[in-house]
Amino acid sequence: MRMRQDHITSAKALSRGDIEAVLDRAAEFAGDPTAHADRRPGALLGLAFFEPSTRTRMSFAAAIKRLGGDIVDMGPVEASSVSKGESLADTVRVIEGYADAVVLRHPSEGAATMASEFVDVPLINAGDGAGQHPTQTLLDLYTIRAAAGLDGLTLGIVGDLKYGRTVHSLAHALTNFEVEQHFISPETLALPESVRYDLDAAGAAVEEHTSLEPVLGELDALYVTRIQQERFPDESEYRAVAGEYRIDAETLAGIDELPVLHPLPRIDEIQYFKQAHNGVPVRMALLDLLLEGDR
Ligand code: NCD
């Protein structure tokens, strides 16, 4: 089986079938992630991270190693030829000669889509500015499916909906399922028009709110995101909203068994480490599917 599309640059392009293939294979791998080193022996995964990362970088590395492969890592930007002015297109072209797939994280929105035009091996977007983060979405969906199911779900998504790339990807991917999406944020951090437009065009059930309290009781699960300080053009704008929508035990008092998810890192919010750990089997599944067949 092959993924319908080879580059994974946006969750917009993921079909329900693609998502289910990854989630189902991830569930197989999750049983014993150490038992699959014969899946992709010798496969090399190129890592090009132009922005900080802990979970995404390490879980991709763990995933390819669990499948029997290894990483070739560009390392810190300061130590690479990027610091000599090399273009992103040239950088990924070079890495494709060393690896069977490339994982790219970059501060510019659209960087992964642009870079994917220069390579033949699968290019995986590990976050492009405030744009998309499709593999985080796959592990979010995996976690949500296990905790609360997908079809028939009423999901709250709270926090920085403007700059949060995990939100944009998740919102797009959820249009493949029967999910009611409730977006909660200050008006200044509401969903970008372009994402809202796509959700409406897909016929998704969407509501936007500025306060969590009135909808909290209706939710089957709550997805919390960090205010993306590094994307604010102005520090004072960040300070005006920092700490808003902090979710704690008091917020959830009287609410029965509400699964709360968070892509991490957390600043003020509660955490969900299981979700971060699911990154390994989910990324194993994605890499396994992408590297299937002769390239
Ligand atoms: C997210 C990201 O980088 O967009 N982190 C992650 O990959 N787990 C979310 C965030 O930084 O808030």
Report on the architecture of this protein.
By secondary structure, the protein is an alpha/beta fold. The chain folds into 2 domains: 11-131 and 278-290, Aspartate/ornithine carbamoyltransferase (Rossmann fold); 134-277, Aspartate/ornithine carbamoyltransferase (Rossmann fold), CATH 3.40.50. Helices cover 36% and strands 15% of the residues. The model has no long low-confidence stretch (mean pLDDT 92). Bound molecules: N-carbamoyl-L-aspartate. N-carbamoyl-L-aspartate binds at residues 55-56, 127, 133, 136, 165-166, 225-226, 263-265.
Main attributes of the structure:
295 residues, alpha/beta, Rossmann fold, 2 domains, four-stranded parallel beta sheet, 36% helix, globular, binds N-carbamoyl-L-aspartate
Can you describe this structure in just a few lines?
With 295 residues, the chain is α/β, with parallel strands linked by helices.
Q: Output the radius of gyration.
A: 19 Å
CATH class of the largest domain: Alpha Beta
What is the tally of beta strands?
9
Number of domains: 2
Arithmetic mean of pLDDT:
92
Hetero groups in this structure are: N-carbamoyl-L-aspartate
Label the structural class.
alpha/beta
